[in-house]
Fold this sequence. Notes:
Layout: H1 8-14, H2 30-45, H3 59-74
Amino acid sequence: MAEITFTLDQQKAHDALRHLSITANAGSGKTRVLVSRYCDIVEYLGIRPAEMAAITFTEKAASELRTRIARSLKNGWGMNPTKPTGRS
Length: 88
């Protein structure tokens, strides 16, 4: 799986030990960051998907997020499997 490079702001948002709310322009990578963060929380922190909430403002965004998370979990968890964020 190819390693994904995040900007500094995306890295901060990806920190699994922080609560967050993301607002940004279209095409800025919000969904990519959320999917990676969600999958890393499942894999590295052992939290089950049924124990988390990922909230969006539209049904379309929710559907896209759900689809990408399911695909990522099925294909090998997070997008950066060698370095979990938020863990020492």
